[in-house]
Amino acid sequence: MAVVTATTGLWIAVGVLGALLIGGLAAGFLLLAMGRLHLDLGWGRSLHELGPIELEIAAPRELVFKLISEPYLGHTPEDSKIEVLARGVDLAVAAHLTKVHFYEARTVEVIEFEAPARVGFSHLTGPVPYAVEQFVLREAEGGSTLRYSGEMGIDFFLLGRIAGRYWVRPQWERVVREDLEDVKERAEELERHRRPRRSGEPAA
Q1: How many domains does the chain have?
Q2: Is 119 a member of any domain?
Q3: Does residue 28 lie in a domain region?
């Protein structure tokens, strides 16, 4: 009886330790996804292309550039998911909160501005150990073209490649596409109100 009791106790202890290990791993992955735990190990890193995503915008590129840069170099709206940590004339460091299903991911990035043609983002901390992005603005007939492209890196060999291809990249590009559509909508709305004033016509 004593042997059976000891064996049962051992299996209970193993089960508890296993549950704690699984819980710890799950918590670690969640903290990584939320950007609260940053690991830059370089173990089995895979690189994943972001974009390209391109939009035609019926507004001049100077206006589009201003909308993109304003939260970083000028006034940051109180309800924005952007927290500017440092800013200069053409450079800023900012934290971003992004809603991803049931949690918010936090990233910190250096943003470089080359008016009115380019905005570049370099990843410092967040859910992935490495990422660079750029938004390039070109003049086009009837307005401008906004093109997004980038690259991210994820560690942990095959697990990182699978996560990057089927989870992180699709979610990342979805958020970027939504942000670009919002910029397009706001820029075109502002341009519609600006045109009558420039031509001397009454505003609608």
Answers
A1: 1
A2: yes
A3: no
CA 143 to chain centre: 26
pTM of the model as a whole: 0.81
Counting Cβ atoms within 10 Å, is residue 1 exposed (0-12), middle (13-18) or buried (19+)?
exposed
Residue carrying the six token digits 């609260």: 36
Structure tokens of 108?
A: 């910190």
Residue 178 belongs to domain spanning: 35-199
Q: Are 187 and 57 in contact (CB under 8 A)?
A: yes
Which is nearest to 194 in space by CA: 67, 50, 30? 67
Amino acid (1-letter code) at residue 139:
E
What three-state secondary structure class fits 149? strand
Identify the CATH number of the domain in which residue 93 sits. Answer: 3.30.530.20
Residue 111 parent element (H or E): strand 103-114
Task: Give the C-alpha separation, 202 to 18, whole Å.
Answer: 72
pLDDT digits (tens, 9 = 90+) for 58-110: 999 999 999 999 999 999 988 888 999 999 999 999 999 887 766 688 889 99
Identify residue 49 by its one-letter amino acid code.
E
Sole residue written with tokens 């009837």: 142
Give Cβ neighbours of residue 49 (< 8 Å, ≥ 6 apart): 149, 150, 151
> What is the Cα–Cα distance from 155 to 160, expressed in whole angstroms?
5
